[in-house]
Amino acid sequence: MIRVCIAGVTGWVGQPLAAAVEAAEDLELVAAVARRARGESLGRLTISGSVEDALAVPSDVFVDYTSAVAVKDNVLAAVRTGRHAVVGSSGLTDDDLRELDEAARSAKVGVLAVGNFAITAALLQRFAIEAARHLPSWEILDSAYAGKMDAPSGTARELAWRLSEVRAPEVEVPVEKTVGDVAARGATVNQSRIHSMRLPGYTIGLEIRFGQQDERLTLSYDGGPGATPYVAGTLLAIRRVHEFVGVVRGMDRLL
Ligand SMILES: NC(=O)C1=CN([C@@H]2O[C@H](COP(=O)(O)OP(=O)(O)OC[C@H]3O[C@@H](n4cnc5c(N)ncnc54)[C@H](O)[C@@H]3O)[C@@H](O)[C@H]2O)C=CC1
Ligand SMILES: O=C(O)C1=N[C@H](C(=O)O)C[C@H](O)C1
Fold first, then answer.
1. 72 and 145 housed in the same domain
2. Full residue range of the structural domain in which residue 42 is found
3. Residues 149 and 23 placed together within one structural domain of the fold
4. From the CA of 85, how far away is ligand 1's center (Å)?
């Protein structure tokens, strides 16, 4: 039986994830965190108001679906107390992930940090890597709901990082030589250009556009209004994270 602690348990993903953990025969939800629901009951448990309180309960895997502001400290606290961690929350930078990797290695635990647990997003990433081997120029468009606080999205950051392992995209006019406002060229993440839009009416989406003379290729991912796609991927990560030591990024190693 894998004992699970979920931070962000009342959230869009946390809530259905807790129900799925409770329903699984090999998993047990032993602790949960949500600041505003502190003291409320969730099945047999009482929701903790802080990660520190939740980590006082013995558990094997800590799962974070809180926010870009809280995730780093939460996961550091979990790995330092010997928990494997599954990171759903977005907002972690490459430097944050290096710091978490160091902490996880010294505690000999695994951290699976996945920008997007949906299979369709994982497939976009795989197809984009293949395309980048043949097409040297691309830019990334990240779209999300108006209230999403972090940019670029975790999905976009992870894609840029994976593409950097293939090559740096070719650009004709170096971005710093832009005439006008350099910000109009988007953010540079691992050498890829990312343009983030935050608009009402949108949920979450990612597009990568490749271009070369006389032809274009666009790969596009669209997340719908429900959290179901993320729950299945997160359950897989909870079951497999004990196989790793240190930080592992992306769904690839699980597929
Ligand atoms: N990797 C993936 O596949 C996915 C990642 N996400 C990311 O997960 C995060 C959470 O997303 P949602 O579930 O939509 O958020 P949400 O706002 O619906 O829920 C957040 C939950 O975290 C709790 N929370 C917020 N700040 C906290 C803190 N400082 N300490 C303890 N608890 C705290 C809230 O009380 C709530 O229970 C976001 O960063 C989002 O980008 C969301 C969906 C899928
Ligand atoms: O904020 C969200 O909701 C999501 N964020 C993730 C990200 O930052 O990539 C992905 C997920 O599809 C939903």
1. no
2. 2-117+227-254
3. no
4. 15
Do 64 and 167 reside in the same domain of the chain? no
4 class by beta-carbon count within 10 Å (0-12 exposed, 13-18 middle, 19+ buried):
buried
Say whether both 86 and 187 belong to one domain: no
Q: Tell me the angle at which helices 154-164 and 119-134 cross, rounded to the nearest 10 degrees.
A: 30
**ipTM passes above 0.95:** yes
Q: Whose C-alpha lies nearest to ligand 2, atom 6?
A: 154
CATH code, domain with 196: 3.30.360.10
Residue 11 Cβ inside 6 Å of ligand 2? The answer reads: no
pTM of the model: 0.96
pLDDT single digits (tens) 25-53: 999 999 999 998 999 999 999 999 999 99
CB of residue 13 inside a 6 A radius of ligand 1: yes
- Count of domains in the chain? 2
Task: Determine the distance separating the centroid of ligand 1 and the alpha carbon of 114, expressed in angstroms.
Answer: 14
